[in-house]
Amino acid sequence: MGAKTGDTLARLRDLATVGFIAGMLTAALLLPYALMGGLSVRAADRGFQKLPADLVTPALPQSSVILAADGSRLATFYYENRVEVPFAQVAPIMRKAIVAIEDSRFYEHGALDVKGTVRAVITNLQAGEVIQGGSTLSQQYIKNALAEMADNAQERRSALEPTAGRKLRELRYAVGLEKRFTKDQILEKYLNIAYFGDGAYGVEAAARHYFGVHAADLTLAQAAMLAGIVRSPTTYNPHLHPKRGRQRRDLVLNRMLQLKVITPADAAAARVQPVKLKITKTPNGCVTSSAPFFCDYVQREILGNPVFGKSLRQRRALLQRGGLEIHTTLEPKMQKAAQHAVNRHVPPKNSSGKAAAEVLVRPGTGEITAMAIDRKLGDSSKRGMMWVNLAADSDHGSSLGMQAGSTFKVFTLAEALRQDMAFGDKLFAPKEFVPTGFHDCAGNRVGDSTALGNAGDGEGGHDFTLVTGTWHSVNTFFLELERKVGLCETYKMATRLGMRKATGGKLAQYPSFTLGFNTVSPVRLAAAYAAFGARGRYCSPIAITSISSPKGPVRVPSAGCHQAVDSDVADAVNHVLGGVLTKGTAKGNEIGRPAAGKTGTVDNFSSAWFAGYTPDMASAVWVGDPRGGYKHPLRDVCLGEGCFAQVYGADVPAPIWRDTMTEALQGVPEHAFSAPSGGFFRKGSGEEEEDKDKKDKEKGDAKAGDKPGHGDEPGHGDEPADGSPFLDWLLQAWRP
Predict the structure, then answer these.
(1) What is the DSSP track for 319-353?
(2) CA neighbor of 94 nearest in space, from 234, 235, 249
(3) Is the pLDDT of residue 4 over 50?
(4) Which portions of the sequence form the region Disordered (predicted)?
């Protein structure tokens, strides 16, 4: 019993001695700071005991990537360029190099290195200032971790400044760190948090940046170079200071040789190697992306949607620090096709300042497979560049939208077919139309006495069927049709198909609704037309399919699909719009497979559109002037494919659509539209009068339907009305 008691007392004396020595060393370590700061060593020691011992190790900021549907990278976002990797994915020689130069006794000591501390104390006392800190890798990790956890610049400075308080805090936390984690785990944390200069945080980002390799593949010479940087990332940066960087590398090699980590032959072979850098910049953001405006659309979706965080600050932190892997709907092949087409027909630096935007949406899913603008993302004051995403709504690209023109006639057509009108139903299209007898959904009478007309004399003064009126896009026919089926009902049809103003508000309801005075975005128009390709199933446009993070999957909003139009009505719309490409305003823009579409030319030629689709893909194309279409109309302009007195929807937008779809759908199996039900043919095909007019023309008879502007001449009949639909809306809006 006595012997055991003696042994216990001996162990207690040993522990007390160790504690005393540790306390003295701690005080010695803090002595230079205490003297300079007017702090007594006893006070410093009391402060040390009161500090918390556990530090919640921070989640390190990691870069996020946006990926195309095929997995290729579109962009990288980061607050700090870092890719966190596990211990096993760091080359063993890299681990040895960092330990050799920064803390050679790392695996032998605890939170405090006695020898290192004594050496630092002597050096500091001799110099009369703090030259060496004697910090272990654990303490260095704590310093970096506290800096990462700082919420503002002041907290970050406090985490890095050479004060007694900081050293106390570091050591206290380091003690707790050593209790919670193994040495390998601490080294892994350090390698991932350390700054290696040139904007590279962590060993993986550093390996990629300086040498274009992964941390797992670093050679001895490369590892020694990186290990040498962390002491002073600017001074020893081999990119900025090749000579100093090499000298520092050789110093690390010598230290590794001294510690017998490497052989003399290894050291000699590495020393004679020249500094071979392969600087690989990691772009931050969308500017250099292969699909910059789509990338920007995705970025704005994350920053603007509360699903990804309650505040903008939280959402930005998620994107820039969360290490997200964002999988998107973009298909590189289709993006390339769209970009080629818009650039070919509306060159980015054309002398007229005109622009083009196109969006592709997959029917039945809402997936945005391409988003192209004939500009680069960037400073709008520079020619051929702009920040505004003309293809998107204001919440996804700052655009206020563009008047849709005659592409909106499809909603009136769909409503007429929903109300069981037949292809052969006829309406008289006057030469001028006075918009009376219209009511909005609130029951208010809307309209005025301003007459609206057609482009050519031949467009008015006789009957058109649903088919021929659509093929030739006759304004007064559609105004009469809208009055017949109801303005409110037409509005409801458009909203069921996802249409809203680009600013996010509801569409305005005035007689010129069917002529497209509302300002919308190409992405929403493409999604609406895609619904017809999907037999009436509308899906809101989406760009993100899934997001993964180091913490697990991130919730992503779904497309929100619903049956907006009965399938038989959609089939009938497809049948009518198919003739636009073969016999109507867009004739000559067929793509060699079943397709349908609608041209659109906005009042005063301020812009032009084409929206078209197949069962597999839909697209909306806009061409105009970002500076303002009414001030800079599409008149007397020369673009990529020629010069135009005025630009109709069939002149530039339709060819862009044709070229895009032809290239994008190569290799995609062809699918046909479903045939419309026989009920829609109960009054004929709707083409009879068209065929009769052609026969009369061949005989030389002067028929009303043969006058200029009628028939298959591209664009005519889709020309804006003599009155201004937009002015019509303004007058109504201002009327008491």
Answers:
(1) HHHB--EEEE---HHHHHHHHHHHHHHS-TT-TT-
(2) 249
(3) no
(4) 670-727
How far, CA to CA in Å, does 615 sit from each of 216, 319, 519, 565? 48, 35, 27, 15
pLDDT in tens, 134-188: 689 999 998 888 888 777 777 777 767 766 666 777 888 888 889 899 999 999 9
Exposed, middle or buried, 615 (CB in 10 Å: 0-12/13-18/19+)?
A: buried
Residue with tokens 């040789």: 257
How many other CB atoms sit within 10 Å of the CB of residue 594?
18
Listed range (118-122, 219-223, 664-668) with the worst mean pLDDT: 118-122
Q: Give the pLDDT score at 461.
A: 77
User: Which pairs from 434-442 meet CB under 8 Å and 24+ separation?
Assistant: 435/479, 435/510, 435/511, 435/512, 435/728, 437/483, 438/482, 438/483, 438/487, 438/510, 438/511, 439/486, 439/487, 439/488, 440/487, 440/488, 440/491, 440/509, 440/510, 441/488, 441/491, 441/492, 441/509
pLDDT tens for 537-592 read 999 999 999 999 998 999 999 889 999 999 999 999 999 999 999 999 999 999 99
Please give the single-letter amino acid code of residue 308.
F
Q: Which burial class, exposed, middle or buried, applies to 379 when counting CB atoms under 10 A from its CB (0-12, 13-18, 19+)? A: exposed
Distance (Å) of CA 165 to CA 135, 350, 736: 14, 63, 71
CB 403 within 8 Å of CB 558: no
HEC profile of 437-455:
CEECCCCCEECCCCCEECC
Least confident of 111-115, 214-218, 423-427: 111-115
Classify residue 154 by burial, with Cβ atoms within 10 Å: 0-12, 13-18, 19+: exposed
Q: Is the pLDDT of residue 711 over 50?
A: no
Our measurement of the distance from residue 713's CA atom to the centroid of its chain's CA atoms, rounded to an integer in Å, reads 40
